[in-house]
Model the fold of this input.
Amino acid sequence: MSKRIYLDYAATTPIAESVWEAMSSIRSQAYGNPSSVHSEGRIARTIIEEARKSVARHIGASLTEVFFTSCGTESNNMILIGAVRDLGVTRILTSPTEHHCILHTCEFLSTHHDVQVEYLPVNQFGQIESSALSSSLEADKNQKTLVSLMHVNNETGVVQDLVELGAICRKNGALFHSDTVQSVGFEKIDLNVMPLDFMVGSAHKLYGPKGAGFVYIRSDHQLKPMLFGGGQERNMRSGTENILGIHGLKAAIDLSDETLEGRIEYLNQIRSYFRNALRVVSNEITFNGPELSGYSPKILSVNFPPGPRSDLLLMHLDINGISASGGSACSSGVETPSHVLSHLNIPANYRTVRFSFSTSTTKEEIDRVIEVLISLYKS
Ligand code: PLP
Done:
């Protein structure tokens, strides 16, 4: 059986060899409870604090602004809920193309708390126009507002300019949060340049283990915890720390520090190779996202025109050993476009597939995917 081709790295990544080695290397010494004062506890504590240094350095934050969590979902929930509960936020501006961990939390807040949630209009690529953000902020200056806009969209790979959007928020006195789950490790993030109050990360998206994430909270904001107990993470998140996971997150962050430029360049090559090659499958194929800039090199969202097997494209790819991801939700047997794609004017009879790449994706793999797509389309 030939090797499977995994092109779903935006869903999750395998653990990189160097990350795995780093995790294995501490396995036998890192069993202590970091809250214990004895030697084993202190070793575990040191591992956590070293990881905090790596994350803080990577994003340009201070050590006291980084807290470890279990994942991106938890981090995003912590910020939105905390901003309303502890910072007096009464209005949230977000977009309809955010991840569900933002949208569902906003729904919860508007239903159970006195919070007004507004969805900014998006352009044909699903991006916020800066003028729309400015007008919404200027239209209501009386309420304390949190703006929550993602950096890289997980379905389309479209990137939003956090420097520009953040500057608008600052000018209008609004807090600015970005769901940076898809960009940490793949885009240069520097909080000295990006005016963000809150951001997040999740190890499993950048070749680290599942179950480890972080949240950045700018030092001027005092959020209260969501989890109460032993007071870990300087009382921001109780619960015994996931030392192996946190060390894996550190190793994944360090790996991206060492390789970021080459990683971006390689992913760009693979993405454009694939994008160009898709023309031989059908010249009616379209793409979600701008052509020349403003996209993440790790994601290509492709709209396939109707064809003999286009309705079950993902299943046929899977049968042929290729893992990709769909942009539709199937409820009651009826396929409907995802909440993100439904904002992009994709013709109803087109099928969208998200292909996402890693530095181990090869041109040979892409050639094989094209071969399979040709066979599905032309036979
Ligand atoms: N935000 C975005 C943009 C994502 O792509 C994901 C995961 O798919 C999440 C948040 C949730 O992250 P996690 O799986 O770490 O909870």
About this structure: The two ends are 23 Å apart (CA to CA). The chain is about 35% helix and 15% strand. The CA atoms of residues 63 and 267 lie 31 Å apart.
